[in-house]
Each structure stands twice: as C-alpha cells, then as structure tokens.
Amino acid sequence: MSEVRGGRAVVDLLKAEGVRYVFGIVGSTFLDVLDALYDDHSVEYVNVRHEQAGAFMADGLARVTGLPGVCLVTAGPGATNVLTGVAAAHVAHSPVVVLVGGLDSAHYGKDAFQEFDLISMFRPVTKLAIQVTKAQRIPELLHHAFRTAMTGRPGPVMVEIPRDVLADELSVTSAPPATYRATQPPLPHPDAIREAARVLQHAQRPLMIVGGGVNRAGANDVVVRMAERHGIPMITAYGRCDAVPNGHPLYVGPLGRAGSPEAAAACKRADALLVAGSRLGHFTTHFDNRYISPEAAIVQIDIEGRDIGRYYPVAVGIQADAREACVALLDALDRAHACAPRGDWRREAEGLRAQRQARLAAEAALDTKPMKPQRVYAELRRALPPGTIVALDAGAAPAYGYDRVEFSAPRTCLTPLDLGGLGFAFPEALGAKLGRPESPVLAIHGDGGFLMNVQELETAVRHRINAVTLVMNNNCWGSEKAYQKHFFGERYIGCDIGNPRYDELARLFGADGYYVDHPDQVGDVIRAALSAGKPAVVEIPIDPDEFPMPAASVRRR
User: Which of 75, 186, 314, 509 could form a disulfide with 114 if both were Cys (CB 3.0 to 4.6 A apart)?
Assistant: First the structure.
C-alpha cells in the first residue's frame, strides 16, 4: 500500500483496465491527473478540439476493441459538450467512461462558476452517473464505474471528481479487474435451449436476425456454423451489418431502415425467427408487422432481460451471453432428430440474395454526372480492402451505405444507430483507428455532417491518426430535403447550404486532400488515400436530387 494523490490514483486505475488513450480538452479542474501523465507515457492524452468529438472518439475505440473508451473533461461546458457523444455510446451499448473534473467541493450548492447538476444531466444516457466526494473512495468508485460499463450489456458511465479530491492523498493497492468484476459470461438455462431447439427444429422457414450482441460476445463464427449446418438464412439488424460475413451464401442482407428489400422479403416469409443479440429496435422493425409476421415464432437471445419480448411476443426468451447461448443451441440442434425439410426455403433465400447482388451490380453502370451515391458505393466495394472499418454518418448519402458497403469481419461497421447524430463518423473513425491501427479506416459523410466536427482534422494531423474521410457533397441537408420533396410538394426551406472545397480545406490542416468527379477515379483515389500515411479527405460531388426514401411518412392532415 502506498500514498499517492488522487490524480495519480486515477491514472493507475486506468492502466489496470488496459486504457491506452484518454480523450478530452485540457482543463484546470483535473490537472492533477494530467500531471501524473507527464512522466508516464503508457497512457496518452488525446487533446481534441471539441469534447463532443472526444466522446465520439472514445466510443469508436470502444466499439472496435471491446475495451473501455475514456474521456477526461472539465466541469461546466466541458461536461455538457460530451453529452451527445455519450448518447451515441448509450444507444450502441458501448463501454465509455467519462471522468469529469469538478469544481472545489466547498463550492457545490452555491451556483458557483461552472456548477451544474451533472448527475441529473448524465443519468438518462448512462448506466451510472456518480460523484466521488473523498479521495479514499476513488478506487472503490472507479472500480464500480468500470464494472458497470463492462458487465452485462455494456454502456457508458460518468464519474465526477472534484478538483480538491483529485489533489488529496490516499492509500492505494493495485487490483486487477478480475478482482472486482465477473469475467465469465452468463450461461443460458437448459430448459430454454431445449425449447428453442424444438421451435427451430419444426420450423419450415427459419431465419436468423443477427444483432450487435453477437459482435460483443464474439459469437459470429457460431452463428455462421448454425446457419450452415441447419439451413438457416441470415439477415442483420439495423446498423449491425458486420455481425456476419456479408459474402456468405446464406446472408441475404441488412434489415430495417435503409436496408435491403430482399432481407425484408425474407423476414416477411419466415415462420420462425432466431433473434441473436438484437432488441428488435425501432429502425430494425419499426415496431410493427411490416417485416415480422404476427404468426412467426420468435426465439430471442439477449444478455438483458428487459428487452426480451418487449416489442414482439416470444415463443422462447433466452437471457444469456449470445455466444454461450448460440453454442448451446447449436449443440442441441446437432443432437436433435431431423429438422423439417428446408430445401425450398434455402433456394428461396439464395434467390433473394442473388436478386440483391444483381441490383447492386447494376448500380455500377450508373454514369450520370454528378455521380449518384449508389455508383460511389459500387466503386468502394471494388476498392476497399477486406476488414476495412467503415463509419457511416447520419444523413442521406451515408444512408445508402447500409445496404451497399460489404463487411467481412465483426466490429467494422460503426453507425449512429438510434441516435441518428450528424458529425459522428469522422471522430468515430479516429477513435477506431487508434484502437485498431493496423486496420484501414474510412469515415463516410455528407457535406453537412462533416463540417460539424471538421476541426478534428487538426487533432488527426497532430496525433498522426491516419484515417480517411469520404465526403459526398450535395450542398444540402439531404435527409430533411427528402421529406420536403416527397411529402411537402418540393417546398424546400432550410435545406440548402454552401461548402468550401473540402480537399483544399484538408490540405490547409496538413492532411491530404483529393477531389473526384468521375467514377473511374474513385477506386484509385481511395486506395491512394488509404496508403498515404497521413489523414486524408476525399471529396466527391454527388447528384443533389438523389435521396433515399425517408424513414417514415410525414404527411400533413
């Protein structure tokens, strides 16, 4: 046991969790933490240009590694600025730990400078929001924070530590994470596995909906084996396009908003659904029966019991780790008697897959100028190396990517999910690149979203974070313009915007910049940008009148 200041204790606790990067903007309330890092280079403080972007970076790192992403910010606007990024981690079930250096303890409750009720602010978008009031409790409460963030269904937490607490001394002993949280996944109940196997065994048209819980549990290979051995086609939940290899012959496509019509057709036909690691949330299902038949028997696997049967009644609910449940279910199906004949169903699913592949291949012939976004994605499929991590922003042009980027490995598809937040993809990609520096990383933006966090080009150049950003520029807020086009008689207002040349802007920051206005250039430029050895931005002007169908019909009565 040794005596250290609170700031040193925080750093040692982060190191015990394997934290390599901490994101934020330097602030006077937590200088005791930063001072402890001055002579300790095992943890790097990534000094960003806006705390929102720092939270997105922490989220991106956490999503691609499964390790905790950490932010360290100051009180007041430092804390309020991270809220949107924390909300992204909340909807993604991402283990982001936000540490806030608070004002002096003696000033709480006096409406002091930068004093806000951060516990109440963060509680709706975190699993836990707490304040440390004594230095001696720093280890206990940071253990609690990481335990909460990393166990069960992961998620963000916020810990506020007043500046005087960080400056106080305390006695500490080192403790590895295994001493303060469970490291073994929860197992499924045998009765639930037997009943689930019975449902699937008797189904004539079973289908798997594979979600983010499969990625988190590392169950991707088990899901594929189950599909192959028992003739069960696969589709993916909204924003979870990387949960199974897209090149697999039994993969039909992504379901939900901006998804594949062929996946929707398969889902409508299914008489049994094995839902692995998905809540069946809003943009996967729209909470109605447009995709899921009321007669379909649903077997739902989720680590969180709260969401089993929440939106659709289940035949069997299995609360367990997705990998453990899928391993047990595969074993039960392997030992069962012959399943219902499924040759016709497999051929139907293969036909739907072929229909999707033909539809996407035809888009490679689109030759309008400016380019259609569909043609851009056709060229990307040819150019991107296998295993590329792709972050899709919110907005019209990135929305086409859900059905058009091909993912071959888990933890490579990063989307805003139910947050739907613009400005997400670029900083998310920077965090992903730090977490997996060996992987190519591409952020895909529209022009509006990219400008929301474009300042992080300076961060990327300074920290040598060599991610590539593709900006499809149509000089408008495309998603909203699509609503006005389809449902308001093309009465456009507030949708048209102006932009700089993003390739030139990138070069002003010290990054590489490319401008592409012909389809034949896309592949070569993307390959050059990925191999440039520095951050890069590729701008492509696209058809300003091409929009995906809006997610929901908005009609005036």
Answer: 75
d(CA 164, CA 101) in angstroms, rounded, equals 9
Answer yes or no: are the C-beta atoms of 58 and 46 closer than 8 Å.
no
Tokens 């380019």 belong to 371
- d(CA 482, CA 439) in angstroms, rounded, equals 35
User: Where does 222-322 show beta strands of DSSP type E?
Assistant: 234-236, 251-254, 272-276, 297-302, 316-319
Report the alpha-carbon distance of residue 544 to residue 548 in Å, rounded. 12
**pTM of structure:** 0.96
Q: What is the rounded distance in angstroms from the CA atom of residue 285 to the CA atom of residue 407?
A: 22
> How do beta strands 512-515 and 468-473 pair?
unpaired
Here the tokens at position 476 are 């408008």
How many Å apart are CA 185 and CA 505, to the nearest integer?
Answer: 47
Any idea what DSSP says for residue 243?
S
Where do the H-state alpha helices sit in 440-550? 447-452, 456-463, 478-487, 502-509, 519-530
Q: Which amino acid is at 262?
A: E
Q: Amino acid identity of 160? A: E
Residue 487: count other Cβ atoms within 10 Å of its Cβ. Answer: 15
Q: Which residue has the tokens 């289940």?
A: 314
The predicted-structure confidence for 343-382, as pLDDT tens digits, reads as follows 999 999 999 999 999 999 999 999 999 999 999 999 999 9
The strand pairing partners of 129, in sequence order, are 158
Q: How many helices (H) and strands (E) would you count in the chain?
A: 23, 20
What sign results for the dihedral spanned by CA atoms 184, 185, 190, 194? Answer: negative
Cα 77 from Cα 191, distance rounded (Å): 51
Q: Taking the alpha carbons of 94, 100, 106, 112 in that order, is the dihedral positive or negative? A: negative
Q: How does pLDDT run across 420-433, given as a tens digit for each residue?
A: 999 999 999 999 99
